[in-house]
Amino acid sequence: MPRTPETAPSDSKMTVQLSQQLAVERKRNDELCLRIEQLQITLESADINYEILKQKFMEQFQTFQDELNILKRNYHKHTESGPNSPSLGRRRRAINTVSEQQNELKILTNTVEENTRNIDDIDLRLQIHENTRYNGRILWKIDDFHSRRQQVLSGELHALHSAPCYSSDYGYKFCLRAYLNGDGVGEGTHVSLFLVVMKSDHDRVLEWPFQKKVKMTLINQQNRRRDHTEVMTPNKDSASFQRPKNDTNVASGCPLFMALDRLDAEGFVKEDVLFFDVTVE
After folding, report:
1. Which of 25, 93, 109, 264 has a CA between 20 and 30 Å from the CA of residue 194?
2. Within 13 Å and on the Cβ side, how many CA atoms surround 215?
3. Which residues, 6+ apart, have CB-to-CB distance to 169 below 8 Å?
4. What's the predicted TM-score (pTM) here?
5. Are 194 and 180 in contact (CB under 8 A)?
6. Where are the annotated segments for Disordered (predicted)?
7. How far, CA to CA in Å, does 208 sit from each of 170, 235, 237, 243?
8. Exposure b/e, 183-212, CB count within 10 A at least 16 = b
9. Which residues have a Cβ under 8 Å from the Cβ of 149 and sit 6 or more positions away?
10. Which strand (E) or helix (H) includes residue 229?
11. Omega before 5 cis (within 30°)?
């Protein structure tokens, strides 16, 4: 039987060793590949973080540059706008002009308001003059009687006054005062009617105290024969009929002039209107 050459065992052993070495190298290669992948991932992450940091830094730097430029521009403007600067002078003149216009507008506004008050006062005086009578008689129409009485009850209204009247062209000046829910002993139960002697320009040539008879009538709009009339003779000792020291004297008249429950029932109030007819004789 032929013998195997002596080199055969050596070749086989070498093959095994090479195979083992190849396996080791392959394992190392796999480990290196894994390590390379990990390094690549780490590097990519680092690149991303770097770009983020770089972007933030550039934004902050740009903001700083913008703020610095603004400061520089403001500084130059301030330097150019010195005490003798033409632009500063123009601004000052503009400010002075605006201030002057505002003052002028304020003066004009006050003037307009004052003129408006004067016009209102003149208009009121004109209305009073147009409604003033010089024959000693007041025919006084009171509209919205019930709503006005409610205003009295709620405290919004106290009393009503008629337009002034003169007993003659240069005679005594007077007006009427009505309490739609009564006054004094007539409060809540009656309409109260009073005469008020007023100051006028001719008082110094008139005889005092006031002594003229006063006829007060509440017109019955349903039947004139049922008018309610009371006659008042002035008390010469009463302060109400002395020469007025103020615009008006203390009122004097009839606190129980007409019972409230008779007004609608007996025809003194029609369509929410009543009439007083008062004559100084």
Report:
1. 264
2. 12
3. 134
4. 0.58
5. no
6. 224-245
7. 14, 12, 11, 6
8. beebeeebbbbbbbbbebeeeeeeeeebeb
9. 180, 181
10. strand 228-232
11. no
**Separation of alpha carbons 128 and 199, rounded Å:** 15
Measured CA to CA, the distance from residue 89 to residue 225 in angstroms comes to 88
Antiparallel, parallel or unpaired: β 228-232 and 214-218 = antiparallel
Dihedrals phi, psi of 142, to nearest 5 degrees: -115, 110
* 232 in Cβ contact with 279 (< 8 Å): no
pLDDT digits (tens, 9 = 90+) for 17-60: 666 666 666 776 666 666 666 665 655 555 555 556 556 656 76
Q: Where are the beta strands (DSSP E) in 114-218?
A: 137-142, 160-161, 165-166, 173-179, 190-198, 214-218
Whether 144 shows a pLDDT value over 50: the answer reads yes
The answer to whether 84 and 92 have CB atoms below 8 angstroms apart is: no
- 24, 32 contact by CB (below 8 A): no
User: Domains along the chain?
Assistant: 137-280 (2.60.210.10)
**Tens digit of pLDDT for each residue in 107-138?**
767 776 777 666 655 655 655 666 789 999 99
* Beta bridge mates, 215: 231, 279
Q: Please choose, from the candidates 171, 189, 168, the residue with its C-alpha nearest in 3D space to the C-alpha of residue 180.
A: 189
List helix spans (H) across the chain. 7-80, 86-131, 145-154, 260-263
